[in-house]
């Protein structure tokens, strides 16, 4: 364990006093260290089709697993008859809950304090829930077999909304639990009394209902695994789509009783996770159980609709927000009530000390003296809530709430939304800042970010254009939406965010080999974020190695040091910190070896970041490079040092990191159709010191695309009987290149004062920060007619209703007179 938990960033990581941007490179050399746009090392294998995903893994004698799923949302299982399937030539086995129970595998833990049936025993609780499984010699036979499993159901009334689940006479989803209610928990944060007082003292108060709809993370690769039990070695190897291989290994061992050192989880290349691959799903358990019993490898891979309908949905928060202020626009308090739909199992992957995750961040970037939230969560007949979807555990909902409330307040006061923000920002000199709900923000400079954003988009010019359009009664309205959000990422310090009761550390092991190349093994796991490149850059920077000499390995529990995985944008804040500290440990040892080589006292030896080499202080002409040190460490180590050059660090961070951003979205709203065109999207992100600006830009592009999907298109819907009505990509609409505008990315740099390299996470910021900017823009376009809110997704019909209610809609013009066009064409044909 590293002894110093909060290593101070060194000189070059200090705040830049004049507030200007950092130089393009922070390292001043071109070994591929910090701040360089190093091309992604992993991309060669991806673009040449050489990646290895779970479904690419084939083993001798491998069997295939297909899950039989319930067509009903709520139903009792009367009978399961697998005989027709079993009689098929290629079908090896039909598995039911009874079979699993015989091996003590009937249930599995969710990531919260709940257990989920692997296969349904008595009652189906959501549509497409796992009822039985068929194991066959190939995938097609398994599918045919699954279709021949006959299940008799007795259907029950379903409840799909949290509001309905609350009703006294609502169907009870969880009869297996003691209490006769759908209510899961009540959660509160902040000071209710102080908040009530703030509202009593206020000149103005604004209340806004808003529903953050149910979303699906939708990674391009669905979930799956290949489980392989080796009877001779008594070893279980599972290749699986996992964002947290070690955590999954521990769970696997606990559930199966197989000793942990005999369980190996390998997460190979992963085609996107976005939170979807944090939880454990029944398919993994069934495949492993089948492999154990049949002593053959078993593969299970979901289809798209299975992924959308059954794995970790997100959001589904029904919020009422209230904001109180003085007539001059000074925010006095925020109060919030939430109704949360958690689906059929409380599977929410979120910090156990905070059943509502990090929702407490709902005071955002603003100095809000009094805040309070109360929340009630309910079971419903819908898929279990994963909650983790590029969000850090309810941060997304919290940011949406506060950014929408600030916009509503500006409207109430007839003030400029940019000015209301500026007026209420936590000032630059107030950090570390303790929020009314108890977080300690590490650093921030929100005003600098806002100023840069407004200037970059020519905010004043846009406001003029907006006014002109209103003046001219234009067919399209212009809307300008802002989001000046703060994030909270890097799960995280034990005291603040223990998930499932564990310290939230992460790890790195570095081995520098005699010829001066290095193998770096990390506990976090990449799903597309580029860790093989950025973690190599950290080591290159800290040791003076060339980035190409550093190979990063991850995702194999047999070789990597124990880590807790990738989510909550924690890889850089926690795993990146472990990597920097491990490299510094190596450097310490290297210094002693260098002293021996230079025949000097260790105290007289210095290391230069510029040259990446050691020399005697005051005599820079004689140097020893890290490559020379590496050779000497093995071949000629000092008498008082062990041979070798390696180090491990388990880093337990002292605090979360608080990246932030200033986003501007410009929309045009068509008054005839309600169609919204995102004309411009500007995203300024501040994630402290940047390791690889190009990778950050890619993260922002992808994250904003997901934010556009959220704001404009996506919603997992159910009918009253519990049928998923948007359970595939025909109905659950992801944005394509057609819907994504050209984006501008920008940055400021406000380092984290407690992170060894001053970096904060960034992976989730764009998905968290962009939806309110887009909704604020659409509302802004109609604000002059008194429009206060449009719920997401802002489809054309929904926007048109709002336009029409506000008296802003226009009769369709000639371009919609199709008959006229037909006449013209007919006339043309006559000619
Ligand atoms: N980075 C950097 N400098 C910084 C911060 C980050 O260069 N100051 C780089 C990192 O080194 C890393 C990438 O940006 O290569 C993202 O880093 P970080 O913010 O630490 O986030 P994680 O690596 O922990 O990734 C998790 C985050 C989450 S929680 C979701 S959800 C998400 C996301 O990242 N899922 C993704 N981005 C994704 N991107 C892809 N392609 N696929 C996913 O599944
Ligand atoms: Cu909140 S989704 Mo990501 O944390 O895997």
Automatic annotation (TrEMBL):
Broad enzyme group: oxidoreductase
Region (Disordered): 1-41, 810-831
Pfam family, one: MoCoBD_1
Keywords noted in UniProt: Molybdenum, Oxidoreductase
Annotated Acidic residues bias: 820-831
Residue ranges annotated for the Aldehyde oxidase/xanthine dehydrogenase a/b hammerhead domain, each copy included: 48-157
Assigned EC number: 1.2.5.3
Gene Ontology molecular function, alphabetical: carbon-monoxide oxygenase activity
Name of the protein this chain belongs to: Aerobic carbon-monoxide dehydrogenase large subunit
């Amino acid at each position: 364990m590293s002894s110093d938990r909060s290593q101070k960033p060194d000189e070059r990581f200090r705040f830049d006093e004049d507030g200007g941007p950092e130089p393009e490179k922070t390292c001043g050399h071109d070994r591929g260290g910090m701040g360089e746009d190093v091309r992604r090392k992993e991309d060669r294998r991806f673009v040449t089709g050489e990646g290895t995903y779970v479904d690419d893994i084939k083993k001798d004698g491998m069997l295939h697993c297909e899950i039989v799923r319930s067509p009903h949302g709520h139903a009792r299982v009367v009978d399961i008859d697998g005989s027709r399937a079993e009689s098929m030539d290629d079908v090896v086995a039909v598995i039911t809950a009874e079979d699993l129970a015989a091996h003590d595998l009937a249930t599995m833990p969710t990531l919260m304090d709940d257990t989920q049936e692997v296969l349904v025993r008595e009652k189906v609780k959501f549509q497409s829930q796992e009822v039985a499984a068929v194991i066959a010699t190939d995938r097609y036979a398994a599918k045919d077999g699954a279709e021949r499993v006959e299940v008799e159901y007795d259907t029950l009334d379903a409840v799909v909304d949290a509001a309905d689940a609350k009703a006294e006479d609502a169907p009870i989803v969880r009869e297996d639990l003691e209490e006769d209610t759908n209510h899961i928990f009540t959660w509160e944060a902040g000071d209710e009394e102080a908040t009530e007082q703030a509202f009593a003292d206020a000149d103005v108060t604004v209340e806004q209902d808003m529903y953050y709809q149910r979303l699906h993370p939708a990674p391009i690769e669905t979930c799956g695994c290949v489980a392989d039990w080796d009877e001779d070695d008594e070893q279980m190897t599972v290749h699986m789509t996992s964002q947290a291989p070690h955590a999954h290994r521990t769970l696997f061992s606990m559930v199966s009783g197989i000793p942990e050192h005999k369980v190996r989880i390998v997460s190979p290349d992963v085609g996107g996770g976005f939170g979807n691959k944090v939880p454990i799903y029944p398919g993994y358990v069934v495949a492993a159980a089948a492999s154990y019993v049949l002593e053959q490898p078993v593969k299970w891979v979901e289809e798209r609709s299975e992924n959308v309908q059954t794995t970790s949905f997100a959001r589904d928060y029904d919020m009422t927000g209230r904001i109180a202020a003085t007539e001059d626009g000074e925010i006095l308090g925020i109060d919030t009530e939430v109704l949360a739909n958690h689906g059929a199992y409380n599977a929410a992957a979120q910090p156990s000390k905070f059943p509502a995750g990090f929702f407490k961040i709902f005071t955002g970037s603003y100095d809000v003296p009094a805040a309070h939230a109360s929340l009630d969560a309910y079971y419903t007949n819908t898929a279990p809530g994963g909650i983790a979807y590029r969000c850090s555990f309810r941060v997304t909902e919290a940011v949406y709430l506060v950014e929408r409330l600030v916009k509503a307040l500006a409207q109430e006061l007839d003030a400029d939304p940019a000015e209301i923000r500026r007026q209420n920002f936590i000032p630059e000199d107030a950090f570390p800042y303790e929020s009314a709900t108890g977080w300690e923000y590490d650093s921030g400079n929100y005003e600098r970010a806002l100023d840069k954003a407004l200037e970059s988009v020519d905010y004043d010019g846009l406001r003029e254009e907006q006014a002109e359009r209103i003046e001219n009664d234009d067919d399209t309205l212009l809307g300008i939406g802002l989001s000046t959000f703060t994030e909270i990422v890097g799960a995280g310090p034990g005291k603040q965010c223990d998930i499932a009761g564990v310290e939230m550390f992460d790890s790195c092991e570095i081995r520098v080999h005699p010829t001066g190349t290095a193998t770096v093994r990390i506990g976090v796991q990449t799903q597309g974020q580029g860790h093989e490149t950025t973690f190599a850059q950290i080591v290159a920077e800290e040791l003076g190695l060339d980035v190409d000499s550093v190979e990063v390995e991850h995702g194999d529990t047999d070789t990597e040091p124990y880590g807790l995985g990738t989510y909550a944008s924690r890889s850089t804040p926690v795993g990146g910190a472990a990597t920097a500290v491990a490299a510094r440990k190596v450097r310490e040892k290297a210094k002693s070896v260098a002293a021996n080589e230079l025949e000097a006292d260790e105290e007289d030896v210095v290391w230069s970041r510029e040259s990446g080499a050691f020399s005697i202080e005051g005599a820079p002409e004689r140097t020893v490079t890290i490559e020379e040190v590496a050779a000497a460490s093995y071949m000629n180590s000092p008498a008082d040092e062990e041979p070798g050059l390696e180090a491990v660090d388990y880093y337990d961070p002292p605090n979360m990191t608080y990246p932030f951003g200033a986003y501007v979205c410009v929309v045009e709203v068509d008054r005839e159709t309600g169609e919204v065109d995102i004309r411009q999207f500007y995203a300024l992100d501040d994630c402290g010191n940047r390791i690889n600006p190009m990778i950050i830009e890619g993260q922002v592009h992808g994250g904003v695309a997901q934010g556009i999907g959220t704001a404009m298109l996506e919603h997992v819907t159910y009918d009253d009987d519990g049928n998923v009505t948007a359970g595939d990509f025909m109905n659950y609409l992801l944005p394509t290149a057609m819907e994504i505008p050209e984006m501008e990315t920008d940055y400021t740099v406000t380092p984290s004062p407690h992170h060894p390299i001053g970096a904060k996470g960034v992976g989730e910021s764009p998905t968290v920060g962009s939806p309110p900017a887009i909704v604020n823009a659409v509302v802004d376009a109609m604000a002059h007619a008194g429009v206060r809110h449009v719920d997401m997704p802002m489809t054309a019909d929904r926007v048109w209703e709002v336009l029409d209610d506000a008296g802003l809609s226009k009769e369709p013009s000639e371009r919609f007179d199709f008959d006229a066009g037909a006449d013209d064409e007919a006339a043309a044909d006559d000619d």
